[in-house]
Amino acid sequence: MTTNPGSDGGVPATQPVGANLDAPAQVPPSPAKGMFGITGTGDVSGFGGLVRRRPTTVDSPRPFGGYFDEVYDALEEAYPGFADAVEKVVVDRGELTLHIRPDRIAEVCQIMRDDESLRFELCSSVDGVDYLGSDERRLHVTYQLTSMTYRRRVRLEAAVAVGTSLPSVTSIYPTADWQEREIYDMFGVVFDGHPNLTRILMPDDWEGHPQRKDYPLGGVPVEYKGAEIPPPDQRRVYQ
């Protein structure tokens, strides 16, 4: 530790050796880098005991179990382009995920909603994920569908590269409207055909997409009762 006398004659400030209090916003060099100089494991505790598993998605063999086989067979029968549209089927932790070609996602959603054997009437959530460093098509969009008729759930997932767009499903599932806007705002995925694809959380003139894993780790200074609290990246850096 090093001690610096306070400029106002008050309590001296202490600065950990190696800390850089004036660090600018940093671009993460790797999504697997943790605090305290930890690299490779993804352990952000600093103790080096945690290991981050790389996501692996491989085709699950049939039978899938439960109602999953019925959903698969019903979609295959109702959708002529099934073989070309479905990239893989993954059953994990009791959940069924159909990985769909990006350009076919709206067609599949239409069939999932309208076919009498499927009847997935509700899209409860549309989510974005950034698999930086582990997938060339790093931006994944997932659609959580619920059949209130048959009391079933299924997940659709489409993966796109940066700069590639997806068809909007808002005309099929109106609940996707604001959720697609949020994914556009946070991850930069463009949804073709969306009625009003504008930012929803950040200001209209904001640069970049904050939930991408290569987004700079900056901050905005906050004033509190006359004292200015610096952004997180300028408070302390563990090295």
TrEMBL record:
Gene3D superfamilies: NADH:ubiquinone oxidoreductase, 30kDa subunit
Annotated Gene Ontology cellular component terms: plasma membrane
InterPro entries, alphabetized: NADH_DH_suC (IPR010218), NADH_quin_OxRdtase_su_C/D-like (IPR037232), NADH_UbQ_OxRdtase_30kDa_su (IPR001268)
A Pfam match: Complex1_30kDa
Coiled-coil annotated spans: none
The entry's keywords: Cell membrane, Membrane, NAD, Quinone, Translocase, Transport
MF terms in GO: NADH dehydrogenase (quinone) (non-electrogenic) activity; NADH dehydrogenase (ubiquinone) activity; quinone binding
Record membrane topology: Peripheral membrane protein
NADH:ubiquinone oxidoreductase 30kDa subunit domain boundaries: 99-219
EC top class named in words: translocase
EC number: 7.1.1.-
Catalytic activity: a quinone + NADH + 5 H(+)(in) = a quinol + NAD(+) + 4 H(+)(out)
Region (Disordered): 1-28
NCBIfam families per the UniProt record, alphabetical: NuoC_fam, PRK07785.1
Function: NDH-1 shuttles electrons from NADH, via FMN and iron-sulfur (Fe-S) centers, to quinones in the respiratory chain. The immediate electron acceptor for the enzyme in this species is believed to be a menaquinone. Couples the redox reaction to proton translocation (for every two electrons transferred, four hydrogen ions are translocated across the cytoplasmic membrane), and thus conserves the redox energy in a proton gradient.
Stated family: Belongs to the complex I 30 kDa subunit family.
Record text on subunit structure and interactions: NDH-1 is composed of 14 different subunits. Subunits NuoB, C, D, E, F, and G constitute the peripheral sector of the complex.
Protein name: NADH-quinone oxidoreductase subunit C
Organism: Pseudosporangium ferrugineum
